[in-house]
Amino acid sequence: MLRETGRSPTSPESSLVDRRRRVIGVIAVACWVLALAMAVRQAIHPKGAARHSLVHLGLIAGAAALALLLTTAWISGRLRRWLSQHRSRIALSLAASLLALVIVEVSLRALEPLGLSYFDESKRYQLDKIPDPTLVYRNPVSVERTYFGHTTRFNELGLRGPALHPKSGAFRVLALGDSVTQGLAVAEADTWVSQLATLCSSGGGTIETLNAGTGGYNTIQEDRFLAQHMAELDPDLLVLMFVENDVDPLEASYDPSERSAFSLGALAERLWLYRLFRIALIKRHGGLRNFQRDEHWQASLQSLRAIARRCKEADASLVTFLWRWEPSPKTDALHEDLSALAQEAGFLYCDVLPWFNGMDVRTLRVSTIDSHPNVEGHKIAARGIEAFIREHHLLRR
């Protein structure tokens, strides 16, 4: 005699369960189709510039929630049975995947193939910045810090270099810009600002350079910095290094504590695999192709116009360089606008792109991840700036 072990696959009760499951599956599919149809269709009365009204969004969310609930109910029985049958294989696969991720993470940290440590070094500098009501933030003052393995001196105004002294007979060049000018990834003596002083002094006379580069600054902040310190610094020549993100929106405020706060996002950023994924995503979907000559773009150009006016009032020459390794639609548009503004406002302008023609710019960058110039990149910049200012006799007063 056969022993009864449970419900027969062909029993009326089993058939009823199967029919119910099929009905649930059909309704779930219908709900997904409905939610998708409403999502791709614009509402009759959308909310402002949005595609959907609040009511329409509520209907989409409701249909999607119901579809998800029904789908979960439909697969739950099958899923439980499948998990029970393949439990050991699943556990082994998960363990192997976790081990592989750990190996890749450790390898990235040990071999440093792409320069992913840039994020740690950059974050330490970001945490050292001082919030400022006018400038949003400024460099730390009267301290020494170590970034990227190099000692960085910040004087009483936050300029990179030694303490300020009263202006003597030396010709003073003030370098203004962001991280390209500041050059935290190289030693102080290797920045284009310091090398420029050496190159310009070789022909006779004494040239003094001041490095007012601040990581993350745009033209608006640079103009505000000059409003505060132009008279005190009293430059004979202002060299402004313009970069493509100078036309990006200015931060409303700066709070270093927010950058050091614990969160899931902050925890993820400590994983080098996550950093690699984020960079790949940015390179795929971001970059310099997408831009608009919006109000931030115009505000940046307006600030540059104000800087030119301040230089004229202070009897200082102004030359602006557009920093770019390669051409792009955004930097090409900037080149066009800066050329026109220079003619209108009466200052000199130079595009640095020809300096790198025929060169493998990858050898001039700090790393694959960090696109700032390395020592050789700074050397080429210093030589190009020296040649330009000598050609236009800017060292003569």
Q: Tell me about the biggest sheet?
A: 5 strands, parallel
Share of helical residues: 40-55%
How many strand units?
A: 9
Low-confidence spans: 1-8, 42-52
Any idea what the radius of gyration is? 30 Å
The whole-number mean of residue pLDDT values reads 84
Q: N-to-C SSE series?
A: HHHHEEEEEHHEHEHHHHEHEH
Tell me the overall shape. elongated
Strand content: 5-15%
Report strand order across the widest sheet. Answer: 6-5-7-8-9
- How far apart the termini lie comes to 115 Å
Helix count, DSSP H or I runs of 4 or more residues = 13
Itemize the secondary structure elements and their pairings.
Blueprint: H1 12-40, H2 54-85, H3 87-111, H4 118-128, E1 130-132, E2 136-138, E3 143-147, E4 150-154, E5 171-176, H5 179-182, H6 192-201, E6 207-211, H7 219-233, E7 237-242, H8 256-260, H9 264-269, H10 272-285, H11 295-313, E8 317-322, H12 329-345, E9 348-351, H13 375-391
Parallel strand pairs: 5-6, 5-7, 7-8, 8-9
Antiparallel strand pairs: 1-2, 3-4
List keywords for this structure.
single chain, 397 residues, alpha/beta, five-stranded parallel β-sheet, two-stranded antiparallel sheet, 9 strands, elongated, disordered N terminus
Provide an overview of this structure.
With 397 residues, the protein is of the alpha/beta class. The protein contains 13 helices and 9 strands. It has helices at 12-40, 54-85, 87-111, 118-128, 179-182, 192-201, 219-233, 256-260, 264-269, 272-285, 295-313, 329-345, 375-391, and strands spanning 130-132, 136-138, 143-147, 150-154, 171-176, 207-211, 237-242, 317-322, 348-351. It has a 5-stranded parallel β-sheet with strand order 6-5-7-8-9, sandwiched between helices. A two-stranded antiparallel sheet has the order 1-2. Helix 12 (329-345) links the parallel strand 8 (317-322) and strand 9. Helix 6 packs across helix 13. The longest helix is centred in the N-terminal third of the chain and has 32 residues, at 54-85. The N and C termini lie far apart (115 Å). Mean pLDDT is 84; it is low at 1-8 and 42-52.
